[in-house]
Design brief:
2 helices; single chain; four-stranded antiparallel beta sheet; about 130 residues; Alpha-Beta Plaits
């Protein structure tokens, strides 16, 4: 009689590959979010900002168009007799986002002195 033996196969585990994580140099970003009710005025002001940044040889990412927010509301035209008659209003807010990478003091000073038309709002964040 032949005796059969069962051998346990042990799986040899390979050492886990080390993940190489590249540490990027700390880059400062100046994030500009420009918003306005009219898209033409918004595009003109974004172009002015880009011209100033290009004048000082800054690297620009954008402008990236953000979703347009629409606010709607209705108002009753008459206060007493004709209450079924209503008037509808709508306001659209257009936005653009731009990043200026590694801004200098000259760039920030030039952007603060830049004349932007009324109705355009600029939010500045340092990332």
């Amino acid at each position: 009689m032949a005796v059969e033996t069962k051998e346990k196969k042990t799986a040899t585990k390979k050492p886990a590959a080390k993940k190489v994580v590249k540490k990027e140099a700390a880059t400062a970003k100046l994030r500009l979010i420009v918003s306005a009710f009219e898209s033409k005025i918004l595009d003109e002001s974004v172009k002015k900002i880009m011209d100033v940044a290009e004048k000082y040889n800054a690297t620009i990412v954008g402008p990236v168009p953000l979703p347009t927010k629409t606010k709607k509301w209705t108002v009753i035209r008459s206060s007493f007799v004709y209450k079924n008659s209503q008037e509808a209003f709508e306001r659209r807010t257009h936005k653009r986002m731009m990043d200026i990478i590694n801004p200098d003091a000259k760039i920030t000073e030039a952007l603060t002195n830049l004349s932007i038309p009324s109705g355009v709002e600029v939010e500045v964040k340092m990332l």
